[in-house]
Amino acid sequence: MSTEVRVPTLGESVTEATVATWFKKPGDAIEADEMLCELETDKVTVEVPAPAAGTLSEIVAAEGETVGVDALLATIAEGAAAPAPKANGGTSAPAPADDAGAEDLPVMVPTLGESVTEATVSTWFKQAGDKVERDEMLCELETDKVSVEVPAPASGVLKEILAAEGTTVEAGGQLAVLSSGERAAASATDDKHAAEASKGSSGKDVEDAPSARKLMAEKGLTAAEVTGSGRDGRIMKEDVLKAASAPKPAASRASEPSKPAAIPDAARAPIPAEDAEREERVKMTRLRQTIARRLKDAQNSAAMLTTYNEVDMSGVMALRKEYKDLFEKKHGVKLGFMSFFTKACCHALSEVPEVNAEIDGTDIVYKRFVHMGIAVGTPSGLVVPVLRNADSMSFAEIEKRIAEMGTRARDGKLSMAEMQGGTFTISNGGVYGSLMSSPILNPPQSGILGMHKIQDRPMVEGGQIVIRPMMYLALSYDHRIVDGKGAVTFLVRVKEALEDPRRLLMDL
């Protein structure tokens, strides 16, 4: 008969926790009320006692896993555990059999997407020696555009990590070595506990919380710089946050000005020591590096020019106000401004096709379709998911697709295919309050429209001064294939379609 060990009540409004540490391993004999594991929530640390005496037969939720209230953590079997074999006795012969039962499997970099040849190892969710299950996430790779999770190819033990965090790896490269099989897992677990036991003689016999280790790496702190408040001095997440916010000792500050000299930067002028103490140096993500490189490449390669106009948004705002409730009721999505701008741009691109074209060597490639790029700001940087065949989509289809892509972009779930093949881009700086800007081209495209903030301004109509909701529009274009006449014509057609949305219905 077995007894279940479940997650206890965690407190008001707390619904989940992370398994921080297991104090026992499968096969260990335990007493009733003896501490089995420690759970970490957003606010507190919870110890889970054994509900009965017996043997810990199985751990269901490994360290680092997130569990909900009343979730199954482990099972306890009645009876005492079998005695462990002595390390230097006559039972050492079966050890080779353990090794023979294990098979080393390579953990490889998966396919990263079209034209993507390398990635950076951003996070390891497991450490060497940890037991893993098949398809459990081992690490996360960061490419120029998306994050890729790497699952375990089989159940077993993560034997060795070959590519540490921050390492750049190529598609098809090896990340780690996984020993498959239960024997390997059992052997690695024994080795890990033996190592922890020997580590205890040096002053610390418990492992820090996984979330604390990750946060220490992000903050650039070592375990020696953090005072643990957990069981037996174990470092918790809140301990790292407290250490990161605490002022650094004067002695360590005095040594900091010498650090920049170790990594010379010819682009930077010397700075006073008192300013260096208040600086923070953070490595650019691959996405940010790619954004910087592509924007600079656009400036260097294209003959970029920007033309401006302004549009009276009264017509669009009145139409949207009149039909937004009916639109949402029928289509299940809100009627925004982006569908009007997308439709207006598709209409203008049909009249000025060179804005929808690109240069390929000495050829101009005209696109007889519109794959509209919609620039989206995310916590990691700017990404441009592509609305394919936007010229053949309805208002409702455009709004649904933009909402879906925006959510996926902010969650970092866009695939490479969803961000490739755009022929024209719309960027809306108005959502951040921008009144006027000059957008930069997204190569190899030849045009990008910049939307801005809607602001009431006095306008002259029929000799009278009236207040109208106005928006500045900016079209940046590649002057190598788009003449000034074509660029101005395009922007005027967009303006006309927005000021009188009926023109879109009549194809005028």
Walkthrough of the structure:
- 28% of the residues lie in helices and 28% in strands.
- The termini are far apart.
- It has 13 helices and 27 strands.
- It has 508 residues and is an alpha+beta fold.
- It has helices spanning 95-100, 182-200, 210-219, 237-245, 250-255, 259-262, 273-276, 286-301, 314-331, 338-351, 395-410, 484-499, 502-506, and strands at 2-6, 16-22, 29-30, 35-40, 45-49, 54-59, 66-68, 72-77, 103-108, 118-124, 131-132, 137-142, 147-151, 156-161, 168-170, 174-180, 304-312, 358-360, 363-365, 372-374, 376-378, 381-383, 386-387, 424-428, 447-451, 455-461, 464-478.
- The strands form 7 sheets. Strands 17, 20, 23, 24, 25, 26 and 27 form a 7-stranded mixed β-sheet that branches.
Low-confidence stretches: 81-100, 197-204, 250-266
Strand content: 25-35%
Number of strands: 27
- Helical region count? 13
How much is the radius of gyration in Å? 30 Å
Structural class: alpha+beta
Biggest sheet character: 7 strands, mixed
Indicate the multimeric state: single chain
Q: What do the pLDDT scores average to?
A: 79
Shape: elongated
Report helical residue fraction. Answer: 25-40%
